[in-house]
């Protein structure tokens, strides 16, 4: 182990190297574990949770713990809650943890709050955790800023409805002794990122998020059957810099009646935008509503509003563009020029399924770059139909300067 911030790497025995035992290694193991700041054993499905249970007492200085896709159980979270007071980042996605484990992570048996420094908690695809467990996490962790839970808006609404009866029902079922004084419902949450993949998002949940999450900077809505009017609730979020909306199979959200009014209200400082599965998109209207846009991804849009004359005032701040197009979509040459011709700081371009791309356009893009010698153009090979893929602008945005163009 070279430094206390590195991931814990399994040795040849299939157990983490610090889990090796023996009369001479025990003391060294405990000292090394005490210095450990980051532990990542994600996807080690064969690792017996009893091994980790024996090690957790040594992890008093642990800051980051990734248990994704492991055999993590409630008892392990109970131990983490008691022994890891400095934990800031915890990932228990795709594990068998239940609501009881969340309660025991956050609250001791005598009702005292634990893991109060936790700022990031990932529990997506942990199917045994219900909205009740998510409510407990939001209620008990005052510094939580990122909470990846598919029904986040329902959980936020539950926090707003917190009362003595709800507290007794949720905590007593997990074996936690209630305090003599009630835990008040927080007047606000520190969440900056709101992620929802639930089909059944209610307008009341969005309203609760607006009231309780004034610091929210990023909204991610996937596959929700929301009506257009529900998006209007988000107009009051003044600090939004990132919006990602993937329409449901029912296409309940319309660009003109839902997305564009939202962008007109809060798009003036928007930097990141992802739109997927829409019947139509107006590029000109989008550019006017979002003058500071740096990263844009559009996927599976059936029709784009025609661009008669590209405007030099639109998309001037764009740094990354992903256009995942249906080969049959009506994409005009002027639309591509509008997106790229005036973006002198463009660093990443991904165009797939765009049949209007020509050698001349590639040359024009190259010449338009502020410093073309520092850019690289990568011609990608044929891949699956883009309609069956999702935009990847988020994780790729920090990649080296690359222009990837694919034509079918």
From TrEMBL:
Biased composition (Polar residues): 14-26, 398-408
Domain of life according to the entry: Eukaryota
GO biological process: SCF-dependent proteasomal ubiquitin-dependent protein catabolic process
Origin organism lineage: Eukaryota, Metazoa, Ecdysozoa, Arthropoda, Hexapoda
GO CC terms of this entry: SCF ubiquitin ligase complex
InterPro entries given in the database record: LRR_dom_sf
Ranges for region Disordered: 1-31, 380-408
Descriptive protein name: Uncharacterized protein
């Amino acid at each position: 182990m070279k430094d206390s911030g590195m991931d814990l790497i399994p040795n040849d025995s299939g157990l983490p190297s610090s889990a090796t035992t023996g009369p001479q290694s025990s003391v060294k193991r405990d000292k090394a574990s005490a210095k450990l700041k980051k532990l990542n054993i994600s996807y080690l499905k064969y690792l017996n949770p009893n091994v980790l249970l024996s090690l957790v007492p040594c992890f008093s200085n642990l800051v980051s713990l990734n248990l994704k896709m492991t055999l993590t159980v409630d008892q392990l979270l109970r131990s983490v809650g008691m022994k890891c007071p400095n934990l800031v980042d915890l990932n228990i996605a795709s594990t068998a943890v239940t609501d009881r484990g969340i309660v025991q992570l956050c609250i001791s048996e005598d009702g005292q709050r634990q893991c109060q420094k936790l700022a990031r908690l990932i529990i997506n695809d942990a199917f045994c955790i219900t909205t009740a467990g998510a409510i407990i996490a939001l209620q008990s962790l005052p510094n939580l800023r990122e909470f990846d839970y598919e029904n986040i808006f329902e959980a936020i609404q539950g926090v707003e409805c917190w009362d003595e009866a709800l507290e007794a029902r949720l905590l007593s079922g997990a074996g936690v002794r209630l305090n003599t004084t009630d835990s008040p419902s927080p007047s606000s949450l520190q969440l900056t990122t709101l992620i929802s993949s639930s089909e059944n998002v209610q307008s009341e949940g969005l309203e609760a998020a607006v009231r309780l999450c004034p610091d929210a900077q990023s909204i991610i809505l996937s596959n929700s059957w929301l009506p257009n009017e529900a998006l209007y609730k988000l107009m009051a979020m003044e600090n939004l810099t990132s919006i990602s909306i993937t329409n449901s199979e029912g296409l309940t959200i319309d660009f003109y009646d839902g997305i564009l009014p939202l962008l007109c209200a809060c798009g003036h400082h928007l930097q990141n935008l992802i739109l997927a599965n829409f019947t139509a998109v107006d590029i000109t209207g989008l550019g006017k509503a979002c003058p500071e846009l740096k990263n844009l991804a559009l996927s599976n849009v059936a029709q784009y509003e025609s661009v008669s004359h590209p405007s030099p005032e639109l998309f001037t701040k764009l740094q990354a563009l992903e256009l995942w197009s249906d080969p049959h979509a009506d994409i005009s040459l002027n639309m591509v020029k509008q997106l790229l011709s005036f973006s002198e700081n463009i660093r990443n371009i991904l165009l797939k399924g765009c049949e209007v791309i020509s050698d001349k356009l590639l040359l024009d893009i190259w010449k338009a770059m502020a410093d073309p010698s520092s850019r690289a153009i990568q011609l990608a090979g044929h891949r699956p139909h883009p309609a069956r893929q999702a935009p990847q602008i988020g994780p790729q945005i920090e990649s080296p300067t690359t222009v990837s163009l694919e034509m079918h």
